[in-house]
Amino acid sequence: MKPYSKRMEAVPASKIRKIFNMVLEDKDIISFAVGEPDFDTPSNIVKAAVDKLEHGATRYGANVGLLELREAAAKKFSEERGLALTTENVMITAGAMQGIYMTMQAILEEGDEIIIGSPYFSNYAAQAAMCGAKLVTVDLSEENGFILTPQLLESAITPKTKMVLLNSPSNPLGSVIDKQTLSELAEVIKKYDLYVISDEVYRDFIYDDDVKPYSIGAFEGMAERTITIDSFSKSYAMTGWRIGIVCANEELIRLMTKMQEGMVACVNTALQYGALEALTGPQDDKKHMISVYKKRRDLLCSGINNIDGLSCRVPQGAFYLFVNIKDTGLSSEEFAVRLIKEAKVAVIPGDGFGSAGEGYVRLSYVISEDDIKKALIRIEKFVKDLKAG
Length: 389
Ligand SMILES: Cc1ncc(COP(=O)(O)O)c(C=O)c1O
Hints:
The protein is of the alpha/beta class. The radius of gyration is 21 Å and the shape is globular. A 7-stranded mixed β-sheet has the order 2-8-7-6-5-3-4, sandwiched between helices. Strands 9-10-13-12 form a 4-stranded antiparallel β-sheet. A two-stranded parallel sheet has the order 1-11. The protein contains 13 helices and 13 strands. Residues 35, 95-97, 121, 167, 171, 199, 201, 231, 233, 239, 244 line the site of pyridoxal-5'-phosphate.
């Protein structure tokens, strides 16, 4: 037989699967592995979708997405993020993931380069590879707060650079890019005539009054070149619904709408009504979930920093802790595999998010405070035993 697509064969496989598979084997494992809310979708959202299903919303919808949902998103994102959007700037996709992939497909040619700070959400690498584009990583440092600086960005730009990918708040780092840095990044992006994908799926996950999420698309001269991505997955505990939002200039939305016809035609019709309820209905459940994550963050972060041999910065956003394990002398993978085998606690090796993640592990605080307390005891004993040799 003739060979399969070389491009697809070259798509990197997820390095974190190994840990997920180990978690499935043993119910006693306390898992910080998954990046998914442990809450159920709020009931008003479920009800809105079920009502629509029972009343005929069972057919194909528009390629670009449900009109009312696009209108609501344009209004909300304009008010909250200063993005000046009309309905024509908004498209509904199957999760943020499809939105990012379609954006790359719509903009990038074979060999074009995308710059991203590393460590990064590993699916970006697969998406770039599927487009035939090259992901150029810039190592971020803990001392710098794991933030992409304008100097770092500029040093990575080549004549082939076409796009920058920002993810603030970040998975796996929990870092949030401040307003000043963002405005300087915008200047570099304009200077070199680049596009920027701003992945804002964790925008609601901010825990301190002195930290604010900013959208780079709101800075002067950035609207045309910014593609803002959001999702219902994290903010409303809707990962399985697969609904995301892309905000971009009208021309790009037109191009992507055309692509959608050939991909999946449209996002699930009835579930988009649930998403509409999520955006326009009461926000109390979301607020409650964020307050629970904040308590977990504080508990886990102080617990980790109290363990001799481990340390972490207080993450400003998302629901991840990026823990420095260098003092243990183990590689990230050794640490994660031994921790799961010897202490029954699952974490993700940092190098699963790019080589700059070596020396770290990621913990998602999407488990109960009781489990966090139990896990901290196990981790402390594990590290103590390691040190004792
Ligand atoms: C940074 C980041 N972007 C995008 C996604 C994908 O979100 P969705 O479920 O909307 O596809 C994730 C999911 O973990 C993520 O961490």
